[in-house]
């Protein structure tokens, strides 16, 4: 649901409420009184029992009518039992965010009037720094708990959005960390550990990692907040050519499903122990996901061995969509029953409370079905300490002092700087040091120059401040050194707004141009229809480029634009991408421009040429190219570009021996293979970060072969310059790193020749090794029932995975490390 | 440009202004002082001379630099000559509207704080009543002059948008009166007469026409305001699948061009004598229209014999688009020169003022080119009385008392009621008289129930009031009889907002449901991606329909939705379409619901089935179907449905004799053929209107043949019931009515058998006649230069024009006239 509608919806909820809030006016809920309330002597209040046992004891007290009423997102509770109402719908995509369960005080200067607003996930993903992700998530959960303790939020949050950013047009791609399945899986494990307060072991380590999380809480016995991995699965279309998210039936073959669409969700459920999932609006291969018993039970709960306390909530109102427009069920009651029985435990909306009554009366569901769902939901609350004494839970003492701390605010700035990506730098345009700008007039131009709310992207709350690029430059250089002018926006370029540009540029010695796209062209419900820069923007920038003055262009927005015209224009000195950088975005981007922070982010999505979408239907979910139809394939793994190689070392491994070493590891794919040590030297003349991306190449397993696959990444910080500047990164690989998924969905280790490369376009270093012996299955796959569409064998085309994670315009050699 | 951006643009203009406003703060311009100012003795101030002579005398005084500065929409004037700055950009699509040249007082209760807001053209078009169009336009121009006289507006307005509503997805289709070329041509003649203050002769007449215009001004010697026919030509895509309006190259064959895309513009230029044209963003057959010498000179000025005082303004900033993204010219100066030389006289934006200097210096243009443009622009101002004594111009005395008159406000309500269309009525659901509702509880439901600004569509100002449907029902029945609840909107249907619906519906005896689409899915820059009702809306309405209570659904929005599910649902008693009904929309629609006003509007666009767009590329500009590609064709003329015939009379005409009778008629196509008298009886039991549509059928001229073509329409008002209720309409036909356009663009009269039908699905009456003799050209066509794309011969397919203007769901027999 679009955030703009929250307030309206909240009003509507109040008008049509079936319940009365029992706590203070603002409270999202109240904790039950386990000392002297009606539940005091019920086992749910006994901390010595396991969560499921405690939840069952509670649920046994409910009437059927009460149970049905408890299956919706604005839960009325059971007042006669002292069980409070509870609003399950809380958002925290990149900071505590406006949503039905979250309220900010009206005055943003007063307590709980604001919370730290970090960069959107697309920018955080660009940092390729999971320690940073963990630190950010830990801060968000600290602030969320502080809000919760004071009646301003619930205990569970509907974040992260972990669908891969498959198509460059997707309006919600900005909510994800990028397009790569491995990257998403790694990122989300760090994120969930930070949100849920579980221990986080970095997959690798660097010799000079100096991050600190600002959460000093070490309580591990209670969950900090519950995260919710969404949207399960195959959801990545808002509206394209008559296809709406509510009605799209994604046709996905098994190999793509297992290899691309599901790994991030497996990481959530099996490896990170996330507390909740959200099923999506769309259908997959004919079945609406919220009514898909195979997906929610066979895959999620059984194959991934997901926690018995994990619950599934429907997107809003995906249960309704099972009836209309999917027409999966022939009645409203039938749709509600199908969703509940398939494993959807909670309905965002009111479809369950309205139509499960009829479903129950007509025998489509029984009490056991309701009990299963409610047991999961309340066991999840038990794990959050809902029924336990506050004094034993350090999280319960978090308060307003723990929100917007200096550490949190610095982290927001750091995260934005780390996520800033250098796409072009010629003539030593960057760093544009303060020294270089001294005594000069700097023009701050463009439609993003005064961006404030824009910098937050979607799903945001009230931040303590929003520092625009113009603000940052004025703070740094003083108002008198700065001239500002607006310029044509992406959506409506008319020259009536241009005169000021010429005047300002004429006056200035240095030109900083801030522009890009925003939620007017990419947002929830709204996919893009073009990857091109607007003609007027290219015209204005092109005209400025003829001035001979230093010109830095900063591109914002989650989706990429084809920047070929800017890359090719010799008058454009530097091009940076900043995504949606959050509350301190202007300052952070300026940090990178001035060299105060190194430009070491990497694009987490491919920058396609503008004509790409003309050949590609958004609803074609295939990843592999198809020679017959001319389908070019998707993501960096499939995109054509050139790379160069240089070998350095090699080795041989026997598959059977590798497997033998896995005893004690629960899942073979997680079994360690080796650690790659990468030593990186800073040949530039200023201290810098380096985000190491490790790719696997080789012709093994089913054809067509990926040209390369991301298997590890790690970010080294603050590498100093000179001869002794080397930083060593340890990049851990497991058997999954070397595996492929076959057409039936099995993850398999194949004998063959492998090559590992560090970095892309060109690779900085590479090493070869060989696997010998027999191919071995690492992970079986639960086949979907027959009769579903789209589970067949994919077409086999030519080899196709080409290009680098990053962009076809990746400036490659033009970005001197720390230059 | 999108109205939302006006304020921003206005600020930007001020920041970057090249000029200083010379009048009072709010004044859009000041009239030159022809008595004692610098121009007093210049011929431009001599009312006895013709407009062009006077303009030339003025222009001869300008320096080249001054001339260049005067070619942009925010004209600086020439202060040294006492020539004021002038903002050419004034909007008045359906009432005086916010725009750079138009300002409303901040307090909407004070003078010039508001103006009458009529229905959007799509609703006004649905009335099929050109006398009404004339009355509305006369009122708008009266209010516009009043604003102008008081420094709140200019004298020229960039209205109407008269591109045919070709594709149901077009976001700006709402700004047009519909899809039919004849309808648009007839409508626009009435509109321009009303705006420009020229005499208007209704093409037909009805025996009981009782309209009055509220303009009693009979001054014919001065133009009231200058209208601007836009967007010339082939403009009807905002953004579809990577095609942006700024960059689209519309491929249109000559036959479609002459027969469909241009007739409304010919009516503007040749027949209505409009004062200005606007060229468009797109290219046609490879040439950006603002740089198209053939279109602007050969077609518009020469072939259509357009006034020498007529000027062409570019859309904002279409001159820039000639450079980027069209890349028609290889430099900025080249693009500006190409546009000026092709006949674009004025540039909305600043591209001319910036780049014509270089064009001049490099010899691409000379003074004569600038003189030609400026002569047209200033001759146009001369015709508006710009240089003449105020006391001789009654229009100059219009003031605040002439704005928002009771007559104007009644006309706004009447126009909305006339434009309301009945799509379904069963079980005598309508009229839902006040008597029927007495003592009952009425539920007012839906996302449009409280619509206010929504009702105005796009390009609006501040109206004196906005009466929502809820307001209207409460006024009529009293608050205590009404319960209101919101419901899911089109863009974000979540059941959190539904509970109130069930509660309200449960309480009520009668259900009124107001819904549809709005500018979130159809607007400038934003084409629709679906023609379906949202699943959630159908679900809610479907659930309400099961209640057995009378249920009336009113659908708003300019684009049609496929209403098959509502038509087929026996629980939906009535379905009305209201478009964007303007300031009194709620009241007007309720007038129709209660029977206070008859439901006699007709859809001016085809209601396509939802799947239609899946087969049709928006950029395929063809109108005819293509058997090979499966392209189904466009508009009611091409749509498959059944009709029934019944002959009544016949006759024979010799073509040569028909032509002989045309001596004295300037254009053969305008030569009268015959008048069809239609006598209509009211078989219902309440007084009603009847909008008569006359269609021509027959196999003559080039195949494929249209199944039918609209050739005349007329609306009879207030037809009483009973035996003596007949109203007679006189529907005038001319030779153009009988003609076809051949592949080379010639309009030709062919011998053959013709049939005229009154009304559609089924026809109420028909008559046959025959043309004998030799085929004869009525209008030659200036061929475009060779080397342009797309001017070839269209594919010949099967006969295809099927269906009725209106809708595939046209309720036909289910709408008892006046029942």
Automatic annotation (TrEMBL), chains A, B:
Lineage: Eukaryota, Fungi, Dikarya, Ascomycota, Pezizomycotina
SUPFAM superfamilies in alphabetical order: (Trans)glycosidases (SSF51445), Beta-D-glucan exohydrolase, C-terminal domain (SSF52279)
Pathway participation: Glycan degradation; xylan degradation
Gene3D superfamilies on file: Glycoside hydrolase family 3 C-terminal domain, Glycoside hydrolase, family 3, N-terminal domain, Immunoglobulins
GO MF, any single term: xylan 1,4-beta-xylosidase activity
Low complexity compositional bias, start-end: 202-219
Enzyme class per UniProt: hydrolase
Sequence segments annotated as region (Disordered): 200-219
Keyword hit for Zinc: no
Catalytic activity: Hydrolysis of (1->4)-beta-D-xylans, to remove successive D-xylose residues from the non-reducing termini
EC number: 3.2.1.37
Protein's name according to its UniProt entry: xylan 1,4-beta-xylosidase
